[in-house]
Design brief:
- Helix content is 33%, strand content 21%.
- The protein is of the alpha/beta class.
- It has 2 domains: 14-58 and 373-413, Urease, subunit C, domain 1, CATH 2.30.40; 65-366, TIM Barrel (Alpha-Beta Barrel).
- It has an 8-stranded parallel β-sheet.
- A hairpin with a 6-residue loop joins β1 and β2.
- α3 packs across α4 and α5 (171-181) runs parallel beside α6 (196-213).
- The longest helix is centred in the middle third of the chain and has 18 residues, at 196-213.
- The radius of gyration is 22 Å and the shape is globular.
- Residues 69, 71, 127, 220, 251, 319 line the site of zinc ion.
Length: 424
């Protein structure tokens, strides 16, 4: 107990004081004092002066959520397709994209970001189509939406050639323009190309442009869960060849789940050598994939546990929301973490903790952000949960939540339930 500051009227007030906070890996409750967007102390006095106070009531205070992979330009675009079947919708995907306008993309992206912020997502890596169909319209729309949420969520735009590189010769120049407009990461989709040779050209062109603009790479690798897809391994080979270790992320990686074990082990070893980070997207992939069977027998995910065992940073993202790739989603990062946990067969206490890390600290690391625990000196980006521990955060989803970014309350959830019991 300090007696130095008690009752001192000249004591400078904190911006925010969070009392009765349960921190991870910490016995007892903490009092977090926040000033100028930073956590100054974890053991402030309950009575310390502060402009704003929040009683966490013993709830968990965790690092804020980060979404490692989300298609922000396509959200809520399912309505454009009307009552088409899946096959018809995909056949019309490009035509529909030509109807996107900057204002329409901006509006839809804003709806998604509103949901994301309310539920505690403070950073989001946005995949944005840059191709002959949408040109730079989708990127412009997302950049405008990002502007409107400055201070509430940090959006990291990925320029994504959804229609290929060899199959869409306009893509390379459009990608270059995207970096002049403000894109920060280059995406890729090699399996979209028709031949292995074209896949190779696709990957190498992406790496060329990445080196030209000195930007990191976030490539869709082996989205489809069929053994014949090998673009993940190819991406690792080119990463090592170019000396770009630590600069590359691979998303989806569903084929890895169905490779024979020895082949999977070889690819995972290569990923570790290439320091590639992996994002799994089980929400959309659970619905979309399953080895072309009437009843799917895969889990819409990758080999999460083996990848983690190899020391690879594995993250999860919400991927899509009400577009042709995925019908549902409300962008709840807790749901994303839970789906990663379930689809990856993550069963132990340690696994469950890792599933939570995949949508918090691990995803922050992927985006090059602070990825440590709640600590003095850390940025004041956090979520106050109603539940006191991670299993209960997952179990009692959505739960009551308060999202704090840069020391400021920016959103939250007030979940409520009601019950009628027998009156006897
Ligand atoms: Zn994707």
């Amino acid at each position: 107990m300090s007696n130095a500051n008690t009752g001192d009227s000249t004591e400078r007030p904190f911006d925010l004081l969070i009392t009765n906070a349960q921190l991870l890996d910490t016995e007892g409750l903490s009092v977090l004092a926040i000033r100028n967007g930073q956590i100054e102390s974890l053991d402030a006095r309950d009575s310390a002066p502060a402009a704003q106070r929040i009683d966490a009531r013993g709830g968990l205070v965790s690092p804020a959520f980060a979404d490692a992979h989300f298609h922000l330009d396509k959200v809520l675009s399912r309505g454009f397709f009307g009552a088409l079947s899946y096959q018809e919708a995909f056949a019309h995907a490009r035509d529909v994209k030509t109807q996107f306008t900057v204002a329409d993309v901006e509006d839809r992206a804003c709806e998604a970001l509103e949901l994301a912020v309310a539920q505690g997502t403070g950073a989001l890596r946005a995949q944005i189509d840059v191709d002959f169909a949408t040109g730079l319209v989708s990127l412009e729309g997302v950049l405008r939406a990002r502007e409107r949420f400055t201070g509430s969520v940090d959006v990291q735009p990925v320029a994504f050639p959804q229609e290929g590189i060899v199959t869409d010769p306009k893509a390379p120049d459009l990608l270059r323009e995207a970096f002049n407009m403000g894109a920060e990461v280059i995406g890729g989709l090699p399996e979209f190309e028709k031949t292995e040779e074209d896949q190779d050209t696709h990957i190498r062109t992406i790496f060329d442009i990445a080196e030209e603009f000195d930007v990191p790479i976030d490539i869709h690798a082996d989205y489809t869960d069929l053994e014949r897809f090998k673009t993940l391994e190819k991406t690792a080979d080119v990463t090592i060849e170019r000396g770009l270790q630590g600069r590359v992320v691979a998303g989806h990686c569903n084929a890895l789940a169905v490779y024979p074990d020895d082949e999977a082990a070889r690819v995972i070893d290569k990923l570790a050598k290439a320091e590639i980070q992996v994002t799994v997207l089980p929400i959309a992939n659970l619905q979309m994939l399953g080895s072309e069977k009437r009843t799917p027998h895969n889990r819409g995910s990758s080999r999460i546990l083996e990848l983690l065992d190899a020391g690879i940073n594995v993250c999860a993202g919400a991927d899509n929301m009400f577009d042709i790739w995925y019908r549902f989603n409300a962008m709840d990062p807790v749901f994303t973490g839970l789906m990663a946990c379930l689809s990856g067969g993550m069963r132990t206490d340690e696994d469950v903790r890792e599933a939570f890390n995949m949508v918090t600290t691990r995803a922050s690391r992927l985006m090059g952000r602070y990825d440590g625990p709640i600590a003095a000196g850390a940025p004041a980006d956090m979520v106050i949960h109603e539940a006191a521990n991670i299993p209960d955060v997952f179990r009692l989803l959505p739960g009551r939540r308060i999202h704090i970014k840069n020391g400021r309350v920016v959103g939250g959830i007030n979940a409520s339930t009601w019950t009628s019991r027998s009156q006897d």
